[in-house]
């Protein structure tokens, strides 16, 4: 089977993986369980490999899991200018000003392959970190706040995922972070109004507040 004939935009969960190999292989077994899972066993260079493809649980059909050129073009238009570049030294302006049809087509294929396979390029995990001094003596690493800058491609993928997350069923209505038109102010308003309601009706109010101390330093 010639994998060059596979179309990553066709909705096959394993299509993106096939395109990454770019050689000929024999499909031994292919089993589809449901729209969220598939199993593919192939023989490649005298070895057997099992590929398991999974979808994120979106509820609007398989097409909602992928992006089209118009969707990606809108994201590129919303990139902010005059921002620092990441480890690839490619600025946002490169994608904003270079958004021609052929380039958009290639980027769409690339991101759909990533969404299809769940494979993230290693460079996407690399950030340029700049230590920003806090108030204090600045004699210890804890006296600095690290600011990390990821590559523009990684930031674009993040924007795609955030947009797709709106289709998920299991995001609680009282989650205010990472949601459009919502912020910590809305969470504060909700807690404050709940507090006032129970106090005015003579009930006790107990609040448990959790804060992750140096969460990013312990990942």
From TrEMBL:
Residues 113-219 form the Reverse transcriptase domain. It comes from the Eukaryota. InterPro entries: DNA/RNA_pol_sf, RT_dom. PANTHER family: REVERSE TRANSCRIPTASES (PTHR19446). This is Reverse transcriptase domain-containing protein.
């Amino acid at each position: 089977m010639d994998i060059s004939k596979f179309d990553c935009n066709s909705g096959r969960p394993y299509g993106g993986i096939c395109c990454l190999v770019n050689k000929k292989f024999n499909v031994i077994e292919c089993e589809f369980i449901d729209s969220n899972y598939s199993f593919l066993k192939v023989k490649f260079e005298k070895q057997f490999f099992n590929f398991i493809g999974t979808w994120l649980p979106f509820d609007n059909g398989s097409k909602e899991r992928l992006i089209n050129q118009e969707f990606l073009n809108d994201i590129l238009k919303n990139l902010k200018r005059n921002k620092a570049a990441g480890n690839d030294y490619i600025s946002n302006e490169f994608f904003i000003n270079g958004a021609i049809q052929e380039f958009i087509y290639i980027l769409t294929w690339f991101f759909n392959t990533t969404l299809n396979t769940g494979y993230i390029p290693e460079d996407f995990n690399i950030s340029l970190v700049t230590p920003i001094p806090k108030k204090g003596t600045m004699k210890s690493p804890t006296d600095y706040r690290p600011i990390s800058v990821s590559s523009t491609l990684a930031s674009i993928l993040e924007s795609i995922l955030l947009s797709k997350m709106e289709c998920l069923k299991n995001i609680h209505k009282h989650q205010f972070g990472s949601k459009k038109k919502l912020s910590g102010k809305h969470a504060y308003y909700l807690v404050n109004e709940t507090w006032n309601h129970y106090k005015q009706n003579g009930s006790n109010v107990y609040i448990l507040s959790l804060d992750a101390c140096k969460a990013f330093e312990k990942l």
